[in-house]
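Your task
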Amino acid sequence: MQEHALTAGTLIPGGAVVALVSGGRDSVCLLDLAARAAGPDSVTVLHVNYGLREGADGDEAHVADLCRALAVELVVERPVRVEAPGNLQAWARDVRYAAAARLALASEATIVTGHTADDQVETILYRLASSPSRRALLGMRQRDGRLVRPLLGFTRAETTAYCEERGLAWREDPSNAEPTFARNRVRNGLLPQLATIHPAAAANVLRTAELLRDEAEVLDTLVDAEVGASPGSPRGTITLDRLAELHPALRRLVLQRLADGAAGRPVPGAARYADQVAGLRRTGTAMLDLGAGVRAVVEGGVLHAEQG
C-alpha cells in the first residue's frame, strides 16, 4: 500500500503533510503510511475531540500514544458546539476540515484523509438518495486541491490487514453501528442488501463512478469553452442568447458551474433553474435566486453568477 501511495503521487516524501486521524483503523493505517512515506518530521496529525461520546478522551489518548511512537507532531482540537439546528455530522466535518486547512496553510502542506473504497461506495449511495445531481454519482476525488485521499483505492478489509501486519492498534467507534445516522443505515443496511442482489454490487458502483468521472472531464471541457472562465477572470460569463441555444443538459451544467464558481463550493440544485435563467430579459439588469445565497445576474444580455 505504501508503494501504491507513492506511485500515485498522493504522498510525497519530504513534503509537509497534515493527516486527519480519528484513531480508527483507516486513519491509523493512513498515519503509518504518511510517516513512512513523508518522514515523521514532515507529518502533523490533527485529531478532533468533539467530546460527544464516552470514549472520546480514550480516542484522543490512543492517537497521542500512536504519535509518540511514530515521532510525529500532534495537534488536538476540542470544539464546542453551540446548540443550534442543523446536521451534527455536517458540523463536525466542517470543523475538522477548517482546522486542517488552517494547519496546512501555515506550512503549505497536503491534507490527507483515510477515506477508503468502502467510504466511496457509501458516499455515492447516500448522495444518490439525498441529492438528485450528477455530482452524486461522481463520488469523492482522490485529489481535490490541497486534499488527498491516498486510501481511496483500498477496502476497509485491506486497511485492517495492513494494521494487523504492522502491529498497529486502533479504536472502534460504537456510533458507527447506530441507525440514527443515515450513513450508518447505508453501511449496515443498504449495502448488505445490495450484496444479496449481486455479490459485486459495491465494485460495480465504484466502476460506474470511475467511468462517469472520465466522462465528466469531457463535459467539463465543453463547459469551460462556454463560460470563458480563466485564472485571470475566474467569474465566467455567457450571453443569454448563447445559453438558450445550448442543449438543455449543457445549459444546466453551465449554470451549475457559474453558481459553484460564485459560491466557491457546490450550490445544490442550481442547475434546475437553467431554463428560467435563459428566459430572463436581455435588456437592463435581471436577477434570479439560485439558492445558497447565490444569484444569477444578467446585465445587458450577459449572464454571470454572484454571491448575494
